[in-house]
Amino acid sequence: VPVVTEKQPDNEKYEPTTNGITKKYGIPTTEDEVIDIVRIPYFPVDGVQPIVTVNDPRLLPNGQKEGQINVPVTVT
Questions:
Q1: Which tens digit of pLDDT belongs to each residue from 10-30?
Q2: pTM for the structure as a whole
Q3: Where is this region: Disordered (predicted)?
C-alpha cells in the first residue's frame, strides 16, 4: 500500500521573525521599514521569495505617540 506524506506548507514550516523598529519621537515609520525588518529564517534563497505586506498602512505610527504599536503584516 503506497503511503504519501504531502509537503509541509511553507506557512507552517517557516515562521517570520523581527527584532522590531525603534524610532525617535517625531519620526514616522514607513511601510518599507516595516517590510524590510521582517525575516523568514531558513527560507531557501533560490526560487520565489515570500512577499510581506502591511495589512493597513494607515496604522503605521506617525511618531507622535510614545510606546509600542504593533503593525499587522501578512506574509504570502
A1: 888 999 999 999 999 999 999
A2: 0.83
A3: 1-20
Give the range of the structural domain holding residue 70, as residue numbers without chain letter.
1-76
pLDDT category, 43, cuts 50, 70, 90? very high
The total domain count for the chain is 1
* DSSP annotation string for the chain: ----PPPPPHHHH---B-------TTPPPPHHHHHHH-B-TT--SSSPPP-EEES-GGGS--S-S-S-----EEE-
